[in-house]
Amino acid sequence: MYVGTPGVAYALYRAARSGLFPTSEATAFFERARILADVAVHWADSERDPKTRAGFLLGGAGAYLVSALLNNLCGKMDEVRKYVDRYASLSRVCEPMSFLSCGSDEFFVGRAGYLMGALILQRDTGIEVLPPNQAALLCRTMVESGRQYSARVQSLSPLMFSYYDVEYLGAAHGLAAILQVLLLHEKLLSEAECSLVWASVDFLLMLERDGNWPPVMCEQIGSDDDQLVHWCHGAPGVALLFVKAYQLSGRPQYLAACERAAQCVWNKGLLRKGPGTCHGVSGSGYLFLVLYRLTQDPKYFYRAYRFMEFMFTEEFCRGARTPDSPYSLFEGLAGTACFLLDLIKPDGAEFPLYATL
Ligand SMILES: [Zn+2]
To answer: Where along the chain is Zn(2+) bound (predicted)?
Structure first.
């Protein structure tokens, strides 16, 4: 999903279902998406390591997700169920607490991503992907994994996680994404588990500096390295957690954090790394679109629109770097396409594969 064919198929799926194109064009998007998704499924099926297959953004699970969504779009429900079953069968792989030696809970390859995919798949097809007790088991394992790691390293956060021995804080591999997935599944957690999650949300809130967050934990105190304002590391990704926290709790401090983050992104979010969602201008713009959905404040729509306009200026076209994967969902034009589609219909705007509201 991150830089490969299923991510491009997913963007074409969003275009095909948007209702913004004549039938002939929507059909062309759909047909092309299906070709790409078939290639991706072939790869995922032939991947021998089930742990790699279970990865949402960097593994094979995304291929099953996008194939199920495409078949749902054309009403082939037997095929939808086939791919939903393949996605669901990977949940057993994610059950052992340390199923990945690099870190089992983050978003790209770990449980958080797998659970986010299951949630989106269930929401968008209306078919149960994981029985509630299975989803609850994976969520509880994440909480317990974070609690044990936190105790081991004497973290100040009740829940902490590491990925390749780094305590990331942002959406890509970090605490923000894991907490967001846990908040999305809040109803499946016990009261004690919920209070650990919310205390960790408040811990992350405390680390904010001028609307941004440091990328990793060890750089938090006394470091200047808080200049990354990316979805993957920094305000555009972390603030989505506080959007969710505000929606669930109504506590004004979460909305205030979102507002400060949006100001920081407005000041610093015109990135040189291309038009993508992960560390590009679209990823910055998505915070405004999600905040517009949350607040209906036209200021946020205006800011998203201006970020879109910037991507069409000569300054950007000449000055921005071409990403390694220029057509991909997270680095390239597929993600930009999602952003442009959501700009036309902002009421349902959602960062690709990262449910918030
Ligand atoms: Zn990135």
So the answer is: 232, 278-279
